[in-house]
Amino acid sequence: MGASCEVNPVRCLTARRWKVLAVAAFLVAIGLAVLLYGIASREVVPPEGSRVSEATGQEKSIAVLPFNNLSGDPEQDFLSDGLTEDIITALSAIPRLFVVARNTSFTLKGKSVNVKSVGQGLGVRYILEGSVQTEAGRVRITAQLIDAVTGNHLWAERYDRELKDIFALQDDITLNILQSLQLTILEGERHGPAAGPPKSLDAYLKLLKAKAYFMSSKRADNEKARQLLEEAVLLDPEYPSGYALLARTYLREVWLAWSSDSANALRMALEFAEKALSLDPNDGSNHALISQIYLFQEIYDKALIEAERAVSLSPGSVEGYISLGMTRCFSGQFAEALLAYKDALRLDPAPPGGLYYQIGNSYLMMGNFEEAGKAYRKLLAVNPNSLWAYVGMASLYSMSGLTKEAIEAGKKVIEINPYFSLKNLEEISPYRNPGHKERLLDALRKAGLK
After folding, report:
1. Within 10 A of 3 (CB to CB), how many other CB atoms are there?
2. What is d(CA 360, CA 441) in angstroms, rounded to the nearest whole number?
3. How confident is residue 188, by pLDDT bands cut at 50, 70 and 90?
4. Under a CB-based contact definition with an 8 Å cutoff, are residues 6 and 83 in contact?
5. Class of the CATH-defined domain 354-446
């Protein structure tokens, strides 16, 4: 980014707004965003064949349930959700602790749960739950750590502090959990960002609000998130999380075909991701993010290096494994991709359903039609109207020579999304080997899709 952008990055960002593509491009691409970021409401059951069950009964395994918002204002959910997410991220950085990923934990948001059942279902020994309430510049937080096997409370605390102390409260909760589980932080390990907490409380609150908008996968909300993030990094120019999420808003433009110039959108994403990485080089999620950008730029070797680095730095984070799986899959390393995806499922037993689509596609390209069908059917069990499940089934039937069934699945695709387009699918499928992409597209053409 040039010197003028360093002086006023918001002005440079504003100059790079993109035109919206046709409605057709928007609707078909929505499915891909759900594949990577969506959080579906579903029963929390460890998937068959997943290694999450190995954590059952392990002494060092935990699920952090979404903290309840007691403010009475749903608009304040961003704070309780953000606190939950920050604690999950901090605990996930400890290699000796198995932590269930955010997606799975948040399927339980707002639900009355039985701790023992949740522990058994998620395969964890301990459960952290709590609540958040804000009023007149103060925050009240309760937190309790429970043994899911015995039901005993190992640690509980009530905090009543000024809102500006929330970073210290997060640290205190995390350290108390580790102490209660008799886990120590070894030299070189971390339980928070290397850059430390943001220097501005307002910047942090803007980031949390931006995250809430970003999770919706809607273009208007993506714009709102970006505006908040631009404001956040102006308030705190050394805030790595702000730059990282800002990069994701540009990457999403590519995934959802919102940008009329994907190359420029990817360049903007890479600039902000590199800024985040320069401020916090040991954050695995930053490497996972850059891996995904390189993948869409078709710089496969660098994408693989960054994905592997992400997993090495944050072995307890699901994002690194997803990035590694994606890079391997689109590079033609389908068996190796499955290993990464299964590690993602181990950490996130109730993932966005689209992960099963990726698993199915890996099996499909290997010619293992039986396992591909199982993966697509798991996606249908999660969401009976999943566009991507029927895209997968259409390609599977077509490659299997079951033309009639393929056409029926293709009709279901169009019924779910009349604007589905192979052209858009091609643009967001960065296979290294053109033959792999053409094989998939040819199968879908035979299923009657265009």
Report:
1. 6
2. 15
3. low
4. no
5. mainly alpha
